[in-house]
Amino acid sequence: MSEAYEMVVGLEVHVQLKTRSKAFCGCSTDFGAPPNVNTCPVCLALPGSLPVLNEQAVELATRAAVALGCTVNRRSVFARKNYFYPDLPKGFQISQYDEPLATGGALTIASADGTARKIGITRLHLEEDAGKSIHDRYSGVTAIDLNRSGVPLIEIVSEPDMRSSSEAGGYLRALRQTLQYLDVSDVSMEEGSLRVDANVSARRRGEKKLGTKTEVKNMNSFSGVERALDYEFARQCAILDRGERVTQETLLWDAARGEARVSRSKEESHDYRYFPEPDLRPLILDQAWINGVKAKLPELPEARKKRFVDDLKLAPDEVEKLTAHPDLADYFEALASASGDVRSSANWVMGELLAAVNARGGTIAHFPVRPHDLGLLLKMIQDGVVSHAAAKRIFALMAESGKTAAQVAHDEGLLKVGDDPALTGWIDEVIAEHPDEAKRYLAGEKKLQGVLVGFVMRKSGGRADPKRVNQLLASRASPS
Amino acid sequence: MAVTHDDVRHVAELARVGIDETKLDELVRELNGILVHMEVLSKVDVSSVEPTAGSPAATGGTPLRSDSSGPIPLLAPLESFAPSVRDGFIIVPRLATHDDAVDRAP
Amino acid sequence: MTGSDYPTLTASTIAARVKDGDSSPVDVVRASFGRARAVGAGPDGLNAILWSDEDESVREAERLRGQLEQGSKAGRFAGVPIAVKDNYATLGLPTTCGSRILAGYISPFEATCVTRLREDGAIIVAKTNMDEFAMGSSTENSAYGPTRNPIDIRRVPGGSSGGSAAAVAAGIVPIALGSETGGSVRQPASFCGIVGVKPTYGRISRYGLVAFASSLDHVSAFARNVDDSALALEVMAGADQRDSTSADVPVPSYRSQFVSRATAVRPLEGVTVGVPREYFPESLDQGIRTLCDRSIEHFRALGAKVRDVSLPHTDLAIPAYYIIAPAEASSNLARYEGVRYGARVDSVDGLRGMYEATRSLGFGPEVTRRIILGTYVLSAGYYDAYYRRAQAVRSLIARDFAQVFADGVDVLFTPTAPSTAFPIGAITDPYEMYLSDIFTVTANLAGIPAMSIPIGRDAGLPVGGQILAKHFGESVMFRAAYALEESLGEDAHR
Ligand SMILES: [Mg+2]
Ligand SMILES: [Zn+2]
Prior knowledge:
The complex is a heterotrimer. Chain B is an alpha+beta fold. Chain B has helices at residues 5-14, 21-35, 78-81, and strands spanning 64-65, 85-86, 89-93. Chain B is 27% helix and 8% strand. In chain C, 37% of the residues lie in helices and 13% in strands. Chain C contains 15 helices and eleven strands. An eleven-stranded mixed sheet of chain C has the order 1-3-2-4-6-5-10-11-9-7-8, with helices on both faces. In chain C, helix 4 (112-119) links the parallel strand 2 (81-85) and strand 3.
């Protein structure tokens, strides 16, 4: 049934900015402090307190706006969005309304058929976060923690340009990646530093007019957004098929049940009574300063991918993996330059390194083996000092112990063994332990050489120099 | 534009001020008595000016604060002025309609 | 220090005596409390003072005495007892804004202007009564009962800073902080026969002044003469990083620019005084008009040029004000819902019920009325017609002033209020009460400095004359006020 309809999606994304202090007061933004510890007269909205805007929040928001191709307005105005909620201490949120920080950008994503699609960005504005209301901690009452109250956010509003849940997912992943590259936010949906509200409507294919939209909130992962959109789209299609009308309303996604329910806070009338915040003058930005932010932009994902393909001759699918997160791409580039070997650096990063980081459960940035250290190990491989197999063990031990590659190789006896007496001893033992294979090999069955080399390598704990083992074995075999 | 009883009920709800129904008539009369004097504004030609945002004396852009400026200290703890605190949390009655675990404000 | 001369002393005299060791701050503070008792400043009398703590104030005076004996530099207000309106965040004494909703609330931080007064040696001796959240023009809207005018206790002291005005007029303190949103210092100064000054918006930090209408609120002061009022500004004015709307403009020495009759024959030579005709309507009380005319003659005699001017949008000020102020107030007062501080009234109806019970029992009728009005004018569909239009009209009013000042006028002179102090309970219609501010709201809307000084009495009741200047034009405003005060002499109180 839904083939007859087209999904139309616009997304509102709230992103917590990575500042040390809050948007309008000097309180710490640290996550996980005991309740209400990071509060002051301003973010508790004590009588007589006043807001003062954080410079760094402006810079990070501007950086994001410029990177998303927005026009940064030289004059923007803060406004009060008035509503009552116990975790909103002032009874209004300081936001921006009819004069936002930035307008009119775009983000390019790859659509299902592989072509590039531009998703328009309507506006990007600065605002403050609310605190947290915890309803399930004590029975019958709600517990309020205002540590998050006043943390700076940017709200990024897209045009209704997405036509499927996977495009919406693609937009969110591209947006998150861009913001990671800009280093403006932790962009973690789990920790709440990135939150998504989706506006979705259905219209008959070919129809130009937009259908009535609903707003879906409360998703806590990108895949949750995709599932919620598919669910809501199907619901709307069914309504339209019955010849009924979609009601404009807000729904809350329930990930556990896989369904969206009409929000209970219906009693809340959405009359926010916006008006310009009289406690703050307009935000006036100097064009030269805006240009400076633009000039200092870090390399963005698209540029980096292109450089990896063009300059480093890496395959597109490898580049996708290596550039997924800026820290990973940084690691890779530092490793390639330390080791002087792009190919093996790429293999190591995509293989051993990612596996080790995932197994540890941490982040690349905090992984104990730094690119320089791993580069020395790669050099040891190049120099024939350690075997590839030994290098994998060395790497694991480096991550555990924090020792250098050379130290680990020495302490664990993992340096390559190339001296003939030691190798000959292992070969003799192998021949003795595997008389059948040895006899056939020595009789001329050459394809068994690899098997025997393998036995020798295993016996040596990976230390034997395979090239010399091959030579020594070959010299014993009878010529066929 | 005369204010009706329903307007006042709606606005009182928005503003979370409980209005006693017995006082509604008087309030509606008073508000209309005030608003009638505001009608003169609608006849003013304001085409030559921009509405001020804030005071006309407050010119220039808003000043910016360093990210590392540190908070203004609270000289008495939250417990000394908050009506109800438990384990550091401020405690309020539950929203009557609420049963979701953690909900966000609109 | 003798108890008998204390009520007539100016702040600068007290500070000079304390500095020179002729008076002890402890004796001064005790004299202030003694005077408060003598005149009956408490709830059974003037009801001017809501909160005070004599023991603590004396201890603070003792600390100051100790510091001075150790050789610390004496501040400009060394040992001067100052009363503070109950809408400033102060340490130790409650900050209730004359409201039940903040009953018992003690601020954990201090207002910048109070800190500056204390750093210059002042001792905060009292928090004074006020119209609840500064909404009113008579100090009858306090949850703690009305304040009485020391000149005639059957009458109001004006408002909303009536408690501070009464404290100064009764000789309890030489200086008191009031606050202005639409004339709440100048009008009570006029009613009580003292000086009241409201500087340029942004001149003094609002940090710690509990907001009523942020774009109209001003830290303001009462004094018994112009010189003390200028000194109060010199101490409090200047940029503050905690108030984004405070101005980074240097603070001149206002007092050094005074020109006295003792040194000049024509002290206001070169000063042009504009007399705006809109402030002298046909209907103006004849007694007030006569006293204003007398002051204008004094200005001429002082060497000033006097010129008739027009501020054509004046009659739009009250309508614009009574949209903007309630709108901002409806938002500023949203924080009083019983969650984090102040009174909480529980209800069977969960959180929503707690909000409504707290707010309906916590706010008095005038505050409720303005919250409703302010919420209404901001609500969907009405914003453009009311709030936005009122802010545009505000621009017109500001432009009227800018044009006359650009035209060579240095100060404007008008009556401060359309009447003298009226009897308690005499005005019951809200809009009629709003008209008390008809000559004062314009300066709050435009953000220009303005002050009221006594210019005589009508039927035994004080009348104030208002002097206004351009943004940051306090110097010439004070200079004109000083010269007029000196010239009127005892006539100012006759
Ligand atoms: Mg938002
Ligand atoms: Zn804070």
